[in-house]
Amino acid sequence: MEKKLVYSMTKRTRIAGFSSLCVAVLAFVWSGCTKAGSMTNVSTATYLSVIHGAPYTSAINVYLNDTLITPSAIPTGQYSPRYGTRRPGFYSTEFKKAGTDSLLDQVPASLYDTLNFYTLLLYNDPGGKAAHVVKIFDDFSSVTSNSSAYYRFFNLAPDNPSVNLYFNGTIAQSARTPASNLANNGFQPIQAGTYTISVRDAYTDSALVTSQSVNLTGGYPFTIWITGTTLQKNLAINVLQAQLP
After folding, report:
1. What's the N-to-C CA distance of the chain in angstroms?
2. Are strands 103-112 and 67-68 parallel, antiparallel or unpaired?
C-alpha cells in the first residue's frame, strides 16, 4: 500500500464539549503555496497542524518566524481539521494569547522538512495552568497493512494527570500523562474494526469519558486524545483520521 498521505484530516467522532474548527478558521496563510488538499507542487511543501488542547489557556494565535499563520484566533479545545502547507525550512514557533503580544510558549528554530508532517500541540501542566507547546513529527512509516488501523493517544486533560486508554474494555495504554505526549506519540497498530473507546483514571480506575461505535478503518492512522477538565464537566474524546489515497 502506498503510504503517501492525502493532505487533510477529517473529524471522525467526538463527545461532549468542543466542536471541531471549520477549515476556513484554521486555513494557514502560507505565502506562495497552495492550500492543503490541492497541492500542485508537493516537492516544495512541509505540512503542519495545530491542536489547542490547553483548557486553562485562552484563545491563541500561532507565529512562525514572527509571521502570523492563523488569521483567526484558535479557541481552546479546537484543532486543525486538515494540514496547512509551508515552504520547508527552519522556523521558530510562538504561541501567543490572541489579540496580544503575550507569549505563552515557544519552540526554538527547528527544521520543517520537505514532505514531512508535524503537529503543534498546546497543553496545560497537570493540576496547573501553565501552557506548553510541543512540536511532534507525525511519522506514518508504520502504516503498512490494510488489515490494521494505527493510532496514537494524547492526554490533554490537566485535571487528570495519569490516565489509561481502553479499547472494548481492554487496556491499550497505561499511565499516560500530559508530559508523556512528547516521548510517546508514535502510531501503534490495532485490528481494524468498531470500538468503544474509554479513558479511565490510572489511580482509581474510575471511568472519565467513553465514546462508542468508533470505526477505526484499516490502513489509516488515527490521532485520539482526551481534553477538557473534570471541574468544568466537559471532558471529551477526539478522534481524527488522516486520509490516505
Report:
1. 9
2. unpaired
Q: Any idea which residue has 490516505 for its cell?
A: 244
Mean pLDDT confidence for 226-242: 90
Give how far Cα 194 sits from Cα of 11, 149, 236, Å: 16, 11, 18
pLDDT tens per residue, range 122-178: 999 887 789 999 999 999 999 999 999 999 999 999 999 999 999 999 999 999 998
Residues 6+ apart with CB under 8 A from 148: 189, 190, 191, 192, 218, 219
Q: CA 42 → CA 20, 33, 87, 88, 104, distances in Å?
A: 26, 9, 10, 11, 32
Residue 234 has pLDDT above 80, yes or no: yes
- Can you tell me the mean pLDDT for 192-211? 96
Predicted TM-score (pTM) of this structure: 0.82
d(CA 80, CA 120): 10
Per-residue pLDDT for 60 more than 50? yes
Q: Write the CA distances from 17 to 20, 99, 155, 229, 231, integer angstroms.
A: 10, 24, 16, 10, 13
Q: Are strands 148-156 and 221-227 parallel, antiparallel or unpaired?
A: parallel
Percentage of the chain with pLDDT > 90? Answer: 69
Distance CA 215, CA 222 (A): 10
Instruction: For residue 201, give the H/E element and its range.
Output: strand 193-201
Q: Please tell me whether residue 173 adopts helix, strand or coil conformation.
A: strand
23 closest CA partner among 86, 72, 58: 72
